[in-house]
C-alpha cells in the first residue's frame, strides 16, 4: 500500500504522550505528593508552589522524573519551613522510583501505524527528558526496532530540530513531526518550514500549553483526532482531523 502522496520522506514521533502514556504517571505522583503535605498547606497552594518550583528548576535539572523529584523535595522543604522529616523525604524518593518503574503503556493504534509506515518512510523518535529514563522506556516499549534513529534532547527548540535535520541530512520539506505538545513538538517545527501534525493527549502539563493568540499566526497548523488518522492524512494531505486548540 502506497501511503505517501507528498514530499515527506522522514516522519518523527515525540515519545511521551504520543507513543505511550506519561503525563498520567506525573499526575498520580503529584497527587500522592500533595497528600503527603496536606498537614502543612491546602491542596491548591501546594500544587501551585510545586508548579512554580518545577518551572524555575528546568534550567538546572531539565525535564523528566529526576528533575521533578528534586522539585518535589525542594517544595517540601520550603512549604514545611524545613520541618519535613527524613522519612517523608524517603517517601518522595520511593515515589520517584515507582514512577521510573512504571510499565510502558503504548497508546492505541501506535504499533499498527508503525507497522504500516516502516519501510515506506524513515522513522525517528525525537523526545526530550532524562537520557537514561527515555532510553529505558524505549527499550521496554517493544517498538524501538521500528525506528531508524532516536534523538533525545534537553529541550525542543527550532535550533534543536534544525541540528537534528542537518545531522541526518534531512531536507526540511521532506520532514514531518508528530506530537502531542504544540509548544515542543509542533510550533518549533513549523517555524522551520517543515510539516507537523498535532495529536493531543487528554491532559497536558500547563508548561506545554500555548496561548490561542499565538496560534492565529499558524495557518498551516493541523490537529488529528487520533494517531490512526495519520494514515488518512498521508494518503491525502487535504484530510482534516480537527483544528488545533491551545
What is the residue-mean pLDDT, rounded to a whole number?
A: 90
Q: What is the strand arrangement across the widest sheet?
A: 3-2-1-4-5-6
CATH architecture of the largest domain: 3-Layer(aba) Sandwich
Helix-residue proportion: 40-55%
**Rg from Cα:** 19 Å
- Biggest sheet layout: 6 strands, parallel
The best one-word shape is elongated
The total strand number stands at: 6
Number of helical regions: 10
CATH topology of the largest domain: Rossmann fold
Unreliable spans are 242-246
CATH class wording of the largest domain: Alpha Beta
User: What's the CATH H-level homologous superfamily of the largest domain?
Assistant: HAD superfamily/HAD-like
**What is the beta-strand fraction?**
5-15%
In angstroms, what separates the terminal alpha carbons?
Answer: 35 Å
Number of domains: 2
Derived from helix and strand composition plus strand pairing, the structural class reads alpha/beta
The string of secondary-structure elements, in order, is EHHHHHEHEHEHEHEH
Structural write-up:
The chain folds into two domains: 10-20 and 104-235, HAD superfamily/HAD-like (Rossmann fold, 3-Layer(aba) Sandwich); 24-100, Putative phosphatase, domain 2 (DNA polymerase, domain 1, Orthogonal Bundle). It is α/β, with parallel strands linked by helices and 246 residues long. Residues 242-246 have low confidence and may be disordered. It is elongated and about 60 Å long. A six-stranded parallel sheet has the order 3-2-1-4-5-6, with helices on both faces. The chain has helices at 23-37, 43-61, 65-79, 86-100, 110-117, 131-141, 158-167, 182-192, 212-215, 229-235; strands at residues 10-13, 122-128, 149-153, 175-179, 195-198, 222-223. The protein is built from ten helices and six strands; from the N terminus they run βαααααβαβαβαβαβα. The longest helix is centred in the N-terminal third of the chain and has 19 residues, at 43-61.
Amino acid at each position: 500500500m502506497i501511503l505517501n502522496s507528498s514530499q515527506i520522506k522522514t516522519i518523527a514521533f515525540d515519545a511521551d504522550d504520543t507513543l505511550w502514556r506519561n503525563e498520567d504517571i506525573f499526575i498520580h505522583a503529584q497527587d500522592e505528593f500533595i497528600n503527603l503535605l496536606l498537614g502543612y498547606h491546602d491542596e491548591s497552594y501546594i500544587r501551585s508552589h510545586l508548579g512554580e518550583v518545577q518551572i524555575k528548576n528546568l534550567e538546572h535539572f531539565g525535564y523528566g522524573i529526576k528533575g521533578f523529584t528534586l522539585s518535589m523535595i525542594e517544595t517540601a522543604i520550603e512549604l514545611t519551613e524545613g520541618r519535613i522529616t527524613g522519612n517523608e523525604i524517603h517517601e518522595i524518593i520511593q515515589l520517584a522510583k515507582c514512577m521510573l518503574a512504571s510499565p510502558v503503556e503504548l497508546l492505541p493504534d501506535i504499533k499498527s501505524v508503525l507497522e504500516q509506515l516502516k519501510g515506506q518512510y524513515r522513522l525517528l523518535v525525537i523526545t526530550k527528558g532524562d537520557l537514561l529514563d527515555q532510553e529505558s522506556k524505549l527499550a521496554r516499549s517493544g517498538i524501538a526496532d521500528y525506528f531508524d534513529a532516536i534523538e533525545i534532547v534537553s529541550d525542543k527548540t527550532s535550533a534543536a530540530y534544525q541540528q537534528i535535520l542537518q545531522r541526518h541530512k534531512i531536507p526540511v520539506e521532506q520532514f514531518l513531526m508528530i506530537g502531542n505538545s504544540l509548544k515542543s513538538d509542533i510550533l518549533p517545527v513549523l517555524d522551520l518550514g517543515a510539516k507537523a501534525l498535532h495529536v493531543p493527549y487528554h491532559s497536558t502539563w500547563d508548561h506545554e500549553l500555548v496561548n490561542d493568540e499565538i496560534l492565529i499566526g499558524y495557518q498551516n497548523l493541523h490537529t488529528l483526532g487520533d494517531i490512526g488518522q495519520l494514515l488518512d492524512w498521508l494518503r491525502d494531505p487535504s484530510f482534516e482531523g480537527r483544528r488545533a486548540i491551545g
